[in-house]
């Protein structure tokens, strides 16, 4: 096996025995990025020198028997909105001023302290406000299973990087589905932890940092580091010594599972997605879980209010720009933002109030259940050049009805593969737990990972499984 394809769980023992070194693995990952990213367009900038220096330092620590953590020397990519000192943050937008960050963001600081190797920064759409790989600054990111299709977003490059093997661990952000949507459309595991579980600054309602990987175990390994405490996030949860790697042996007998097929609003659930999610629920029922329908976790009025609030949030940033830089913002996003100039204070206040209403509705809908099984999105990937599944800035959120409630309720949710369409595109399933039960959600995900049908080989440019044509 190519060293770039080894999991994070495999690398530590290999480093410890001296069977492989962080330098060898880092070079394998950098070679793959250099060879293949002209097709996938998942990364931005040249960080090879930084990665090689970090890998050499990690190699020396392993040889001395003093590794910093289980992630010492493990290649990691970071979504480019997660600051690392000395590296500019375009935020996916051509209007951005490229000033080097003065300090690491809190998740980056935890990974640096753990000895992780920063092999690349991954791409995102403008300001992270699209579920798409389309950006006014970055190259167009493409779905690894079909380059004509979109990987989703806003953690677009992170999901692609996980699927095509740019190392084992990838860190993204999620405020309405930005980890789970691209993970589902790219066939990888994407975890949105409980609100406050991973310290972040500045904190923002619904916004979390979380890992993407090819396996649940690697996601858990990343969480072991990312969840370390940092006082600078005043909204973070009190640190708990959670047993992140206690994933095996879940007995699902007697668990109450909510089957969340009804979103309450948004695009119609497509038949292949419905069937894949129902198959997960059926497997749980056959193993002894009690599966019951769950009512909608939100209503249209709630997301309409959230839309008003989010537009105003973006308008406040947009209107500060000079006209020549405003013109650089993706046209789709400009069309979505500009109506906010006419919003009244009462409209924005009422919109903000819907966040609490959405939170309460999601908690009430899921409270009777230990876990919820639901779609990630109503459909699978959409055309690569589109900004959203409808490509309509007047209807931007019809595809996030299954994901955004759990951001507002701050409940943990994980996405992983549940099947494939006839055209070979991945179908994701979302598993949701009660707030703070992050390990429980990952244990259930690991259960499904073990019982689901065999997965397909990961996509490769070199093997001719995909083409940029």
Keywords:
single chain; 469 residues; alpha/beta; 36% helix
Describe the structure.
The protein is of the alpha/beta class and 469 residues long. It contains 14 helices and eleven strands. The chain has helices spanning 8-17, 22-40, 48-64, 106-114, 156-164, 180-186, 216-226, 271-286, 300-318, 323-326, 331-337, 345-366, 404-408, 438-451; strands at 43-44, 75-79, 117-122, 169-174, 189-192, 208-213, 256-259, 290-293, 371-375, 413-420, 426-433. The chain has an eleven-stranded mixed β-sheet, sandwiched between helices. Helix 2 (22-40) packs antiparallel against helix 3. It starts with 7 loop residues before the first helix and ends in an 18-residue tail after the last helix.
Please write out the topology.
Layout (H helix, E strand, L loop, with lengths): L7 H10 L4 H19 L2 E2 L3 H17 L10 E5 L26 H9 L2 E6 L33 H9 L4 E6 L5 H7 L2 E4 L15 E6 L2 H11 L29 E4 L11 H16 L3 E4 L6 H19 L4 H4 L4 H7 L7 H22 L4 E5 L28 H5 L4 E8 L5 E8 L4 H14 L18
Parallel strand pairs: 2-3, 2-4, 7-8, 7-9
Antiparallel strand pairs: 1-3, 4-6, 5-6, 5-10, 9-11, 10-11
Helix pairs in contact: 2-3, 7-14, 9-12
Unreliable parts: 463-469
Sheet/helix structural class:
alpha/beta
The general outline is globular
* Largest sheet: spatial strand order: 1-3-2-4-6-5-10-11-9-7-8
Structure annotation, total helices:
14
Provide the residue-averaged pLDDT. 96
Number of strands: 11
- How are helices and strands ordered from N to C? HHEHEHEHEHEEHEHEHHHHEHEEH
- Percent of residues in helices: 25-40%
Rg measurement, Å: 21 Å
Q: How far do the termini sit from each other?
A: 28 Å
Oligomer description: single chain
The major beta sheet can be summarized as: 11 strands, mixed
- SS strand fraction: 5-15%
């Amino acid at each position: 096996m190519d060293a770039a394809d080894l999991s994070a769980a495999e690398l530590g023992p290999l480093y410890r025995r001296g069977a492989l070194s962080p330098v060898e693995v880092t070079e394998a990952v950098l070679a793959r990025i250099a060879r293949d990213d002209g097709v996938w367009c998942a990364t931005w900038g040249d960080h090879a020198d930084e990665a090689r220096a970090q890998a050499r330092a990690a190699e020396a620590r392993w040889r001395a028997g003093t590794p910093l953590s289980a992630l010492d020397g493990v290649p990691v990519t970071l979504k480019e909105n997660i600051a690392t000192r000395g590296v500019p943050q375009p935020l996916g937008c051509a209007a951005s001023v490229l000033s080097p960050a003065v300090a690491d963001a809190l998740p980056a600081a935890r990974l640096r302290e753990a000895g992780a190797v920063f092999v690349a920064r991954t791409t995102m759409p403008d300001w992270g406000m699209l579920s798409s790989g389309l950006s006014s600054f970055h190259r167009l990111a493409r779905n690894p299973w079909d380059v004509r299709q979109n990987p989703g977003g806003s953690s677009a490059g992170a999901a692609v990087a996980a699927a095509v093997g740019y190392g084992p661990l990838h860190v993204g952000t999620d405020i309405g589905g930005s980890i789970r949507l691209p993970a589902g459309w790219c066939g990888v595991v994407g975890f949105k932890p409980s609100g406050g579980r991973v310290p972040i600054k500045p904190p923002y309602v619904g916004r979390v940092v979380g890992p993407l990987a090819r396996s649940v175990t690697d996601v858990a390994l990343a969480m072991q580091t990312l969840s370390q405490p940092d006082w600078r996030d005043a909204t973070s949860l009190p640190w708990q010594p959670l047993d992140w790697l206690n994933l095996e042996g879940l007995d699902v007998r007697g668990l109450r599972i909510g089957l969340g097929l009804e979103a309450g609003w948004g695009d119609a659930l497509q038949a292949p997605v419905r069937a894949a999610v129902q198959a997960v629920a059926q497997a749980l029922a056959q193993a002894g879980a009690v599966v019951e329908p769950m009512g909608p976790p939100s209503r249209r009025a709630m997301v309409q209010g959230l839309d008003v609030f989010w537009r105003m949030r973006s308008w406040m940033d947009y209107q500060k720009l000079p006209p020549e830089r405003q013109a650089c913002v993706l046209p789709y996003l400009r069309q979505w933002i500009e109506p906010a100039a006419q919003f009244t204070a009462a409209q924005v206040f009422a919109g903000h109030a819907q966040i609490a209403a959405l939170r309460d509705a999601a908690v009430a809908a899921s409270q009777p259940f230990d876990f919820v099984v639901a779609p990630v999105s109503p459909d699978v990937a959409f055309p690569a050049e589109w900004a959203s599944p409808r490509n309509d800035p007047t209807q931007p959120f019809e595809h996030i009805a299954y994901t955004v409630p759990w951001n507002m309720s701050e409940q943990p949710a994980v996405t992983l593969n549940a099947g494939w369409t006839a055209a070979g595109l991945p179908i994701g399933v979302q598993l949701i737990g009660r707030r703070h039960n992050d390990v429980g959600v990952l244990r259930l995900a690991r259960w499904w990972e073990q019982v689901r049908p065999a997965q397909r080989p990961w996509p490769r440019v070199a093997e001719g499984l995909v083409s940029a044509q």
